[in-house]
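Blackboard transcription, Thursday session:
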Amino acid sequence: MTPIVEGRGLTRTFPMSSGPVTALRDVSIRIDEGDYVAITGPSGCGKSTLLHLLGCVDTPTVGSLLFEGRDAAALSESERSRIRLARIGFVFQRFFLLPMLNAWENVELPQAEIGLNPAERRARTAELLEYAGLGDRAHHRPSQLSGGEMQRVAIARALANRPALLLADEPTGELDEDTGEQIADLFDRVHADGTAIVVVTHNAQLAARARRHLTMKRGTLEASES
Amino acid sequence: MTSRALAWRTVTAERPRAVLAVVGVMVIGALLFDMLLLSRGLLVSLRQMLDTAGYDVRIVASDGFPIRSAIPHASAVADEVARLPEVREVTIVRTDRAVVQIPGRRPVEVALVSLTEGAERRVWRLAAGRDLGSDVRTNSASPPAVINRGLAEALALGPGSTLRLRVIVSGAASAVPATTFEVVGVADFEFDSADEYAVATTFDAFRRARASTASDDADVILVSSKPDVESSATVAAIERRRPDVRAYSNAQLVARFDENGFAYFRQISFVLSSITLGFAFLLVGTLLTVSVNQRLGQVAALRALGLPRRRIASMLAWESAFLVGVGGLLSLPAGWALARQLDGILRQMPNIPDRMHFFVFEPGIAAWHLGLLAATGIAAAVYPVWIATRLPIAATLRLETIS
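(Written on the board underneath:)
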């Protein structure tokens, strides 16, 4: 079976004025359909860098990354954009919802971008907001939502185009414990419904929900347990 | 949701920024609009004035027009021109400077004017009393005069009043005895200015006032072409028939004025227009750049979600278009209101005819103005678009998260 994404010998070095900094060293990872992977580790160990490589928003300095069998480095920026739009969902620590749009419109935006017709968009958006428990908050703007609600809108947005892979970078980092639990429950549902998830987190309870745990330290994968 | 709709939502969501930008563009645009109006206003106004009188060709004595030089034997020239098949009507205009003396009042300097009989209806509009004409009879033996409204108000004259007038020679009242005129009418002259007084009379009375009954000089001969004849054809016909005079169409006169007297306005207008466009560019560019810098996280997230660069670029271009478009449209009425104020100030300069304006509205100028603002808006969006579309997604997300 072709993995959704597979990184081989991934190294990412950032040029800095004080000299190059290597955030990721020789990391190999494979995410298959149905995976639920938690990546933990201290701050600055390279978790987010790895997530960005897996999500095709960045390219490795050394190594190769295959997304559904295609070499991400060989793709053009617009091809990578298209993969992100159609096959990957992103959830960010700071939500990054568009503040001028309401919950409905935020969820509808990626669907419009991929070219879904209005009727399909309406049905899918209503379904996703209900799925995220926000049916009654559809016409509220982010400023009128709580942190947990914003993150649920962000998850609904990430699922808008039925991605194969959901990537979440500290999705509970801005939330209290109870709200974090709600988000973890939602991830469980998403996973149960067949979407592969990779979550980068410091939240032990959230990480405990994953089926596979990876630990990073100083840019390398230290341990892997299933 | 289209880029335009997204941009509109962004603009309306950030109201203080939008209001600041729109007001800024409106003020700058108003100045730009005024500079563009000023760049052509006098020319358009002059052309309108020349055309309104109904004469499309002017004959002068030499090539030095508008420097004053008399046409000798003007009646003969006019008769010959009137016989040309291209010509419908010919009017001889004679002018001189004179001083009007009213007992108990300070003498007032005036322009003494004589026109071919019948031409009055084109050159002035009667406001009170009667016109000059062959059948006009005065109550006294004095010759008739039509005076302009300014003189009537300044000296409290009206139909039935008399005035004594003495021509000026070399800047001083001449030794020729003063002539007494009876005012038969008060009129608004086409070329009146607020500080210019005029007295029009018959050719006989004009010659009597100048004490030169034999003279047949004229300042200018006005010619009206037949309806289906181009002014240029009339000009050519006149110059073929009378190579000793110069004929100019209204368009040629305006062109000469544009070349000679109008260069200052054009240069000032060009410099100030460039500066205002520069300000518009800086204002919109700065606001958009600041706005993009405040939204780098959002932009990076949108890119991470798969929105392509062109979508981000188009959204920002629309934002710029909204800010500049709304401000630009508002700048038209604002600029026009300001132009009227400025026009009022400039027209207080001496010897500016009442009907002459420095700012004249033209649809073409408004279109130019909006086009220039649109181009400025596009140029101003280039840098913020470049920032937004070229930002490194991963690094930006990391920075936005830790900041």
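Lecturer's comment: The longest strand of chain B covers residues 87-101.
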